[in-house]
Amino acid sequence: MPTKRNKNVPGKKAHPTRSYGAHHAGRTTSRKSSFASSSRRTSAPSARASYGARKKGGFAADASSRFSQTFAGKGSHGTGGKGGRTPQGSSKPEMLLTRRNLLIGAGALGGIALVGGVGSFAIDQLSPQTDTVDSISVPEEAVTPLDNMTADNWNNYFRVVGNFRLPANTLVWADNDTVAACLTPTDNSKPISTLGLLHLSTGNSPTVLSEPQGLADGFDFLDVRCSDQGMIWVESNFYDSRWAVYTARISGAQLENITKVDEGDANWMAPSIAAVDGSAFWQLIPATTGEAAGDPSLVKRAAFSSQDVQEVYRSNKPFATRITPADDGVVITPRVSTTTTYYQLTKLSSSDGSVIDQMTLPSSMTPSGVAYVQSGFSFCFDSIYNYGGGIANLGTYTPTAQANPYHYNDLSWFRFSRSPLASPSWCGNWFIVKSTTVIACVHFTSNIYCVFDAQSGADDYGEYLVSSGISSYVVGSSQIISPTNTEDDPYTLVRVYAPIEGSIGSAFA
Q: Would you call 478 helix, strand, or coil by DSSP?
């Protein structure tokens, strides 16, 4: 029998004998169940570097992850609705859970603010509103596409300050200037990965956690992020569709005071996570079917190693993208509480979770990725719309002026006119975007761009952008599956690029 409702809320211990209902309707006796997912893409590499077919039981991935496209190689967008978009939730593609996919991490979830001085805003978002929404308006003539810019050699503007080898298929997230979080595969089936750090100045890569806290109960690592002060990670039991969120402080090459801050079951999607300064953030979305289907989506925050968990944002609808770290906060993409769909890009402060900037996209325009850079909000569309003016096309958009919170009309914009494969970032005076196989750097005032050379022997996605927000470096990761030296085994190559001081002027006129 299903458990009682109060035992399926995140933060409450899941009943050990609950039935899985609709979440496991497709499970076979051979456990070749599919990982429940939707059509949103994570910022993760291709599945070609798959570790093998360790197919596990069903587990609800969050509503905005793009595992189905990034790893299964096929999308879910139909042709219905405006601009050729399928209404959110109308399709739910499945993907096979492989060893590689277990190491990618969860997709996105989000919510609306209740603390930090924004309680009234949260109440408004959870109450019905009229369809009169102040969204951005961008005319076509206000947008400069990449094709209008001139290509130049990247060596004129950047130098490589780090060139590090890690074990093959290591996943890296560089969300600050000091240290990156690593999810590194093992040679074992239990656990299948370890948690590590990569120091961007030296290349030192210590393992900080060799096994999950819940290993004895069948849990394995799913996702990890870190700041220079602490780490947050998700562990999951795929057979039982359970997950748990932990945080810890970083002290040198060790973790201190590991603390469980949340847990849940198949009634909730696996959380997406972020680490900024001294705070850990995670987003929660109820599964579309199940006992929590009518519950609001949430964003939670806690200081590293603290059990004092704050619910900083709440929404009665799912979010378009995963939570994304910024220089002094995180970015989420809630839906405005109206009968018409509007997504509202929202930046929350890392110190208290309060709202510090917002921008609403035109009706039914759904971002596939977001960031907050020196020019403010940047967003990606992986579809072409038949409305929306200058932002109707596929690509990555950002203003070409210094960020001015809450002011996004009457600006000039830039569009990186290639399929978005990752959320963009910012380094020095450059806007950084992942292109098809390379990382591209764009300078607004000079109207030039450059791309880093693709690595020989890399997987077909080339070099992946793993740095985020505003940083002093561009960090790229490549899976070298065909080393030039035939005596070498496959490995992960992480390159760290730094701007050459004085090589170019200000990004803004």
A: strand
The label of the residue with tokens 């060790």 reads 254
Contact 463, 478 (CB under 8 A): yes
Residue 470: domain span: 119-499
What are 233-286's pLDDT values in tens digits? 999 999 999 999 999 999 989 999 999 999 999 999 999 999 999 999 999 999
Q: Rounded to the nearest 10 degrees, how much is the dihedral formed by the CA atoms of 402, 470, 435, 390?
A: -30
In a domain, 10, yes or no: no
In a domain, 102, yes or no: no
> Domain with 149 in it: what CATH number?
2.130.10.120
Report the candidate in 72, 71, 69 with the shortest Cα–Cα distance to residue 86: 69
The number of beta carbons lying within 10 Å of the beta carbon of residue 500 is 13
Is 99 within the bounds of a domain? no
Of the CA atoms within 13 Å of residue 205, those in its CB half-sphere come to 22
* pLDDT exceeds cutoff 80 at 420: yes
In a domain, 66, yes or no: no
- Which pLDDT band holds residue 105 (cuts at 50, 70, 90)? very low
- Non-local (6+) Cβ contacts of 90 within 8 A are 78, 80
- Domain count within the chain: 1
Specify the pLDDT at position 130. Answer: 52
Q: Is pLDDT larger for residue 126 or for residue 183?
A: 183
pLDDT in tens, 303-345: 999 999 999 999 878 999 999 999 999 999 999 988 899 999 9
Kind plus residue range of the DSSP H or E element containing 235: strand 230-237
359 contacts 136 by C-beta, under 8 angstroms:
yes
User: DSSP letter string over 277-335?
Assistant: TTEEEEEE-B-SSSTTTTSPEEEEEEETT----EEEEEESS--SS--EE-SSEEEE-PB
For residue 150, the surrounding DSSP H or E stretch is: strand 150-151
Query: What is the rounded average pLDDT of the residues 46-51?
Result: 33
